[in-house]
């Protein structure tokens, strides 16, 4: 936009000065290709970052001792506390859900 000075028309009438759009039509239609490229770039970067964070968390869980090969056992699977304790002692990382309070005694509700 720019200020257009007042001028006289061919018929002799005066046109008051005013603000007018001085840009050409081809310039005024915005070219959004640059914005589209930036959006695609940031989307690609964010997806790469999110994928690397999820793989890091998978590695952390596999290294922290929670093994996906562990069978799922609950206290209901045992008839006595001694059986549950023997299973818990065989692999404490796999069967940590048998010791709810973390005191080293498995299935305290069983007799």
TrEMBL record:
Record region (Disordered): 56-78
Entries under InterPro entries matching the protein: Excalibur_Ca-bd_domain
Domain of life: Bacteria
Signal peptide: none
Compositionally biased intervals (Polar residues): 65-78
Domain Excalibur calcium-binding: 71-108
Protein known as: Excalibur calcium-binding domain-containing protein
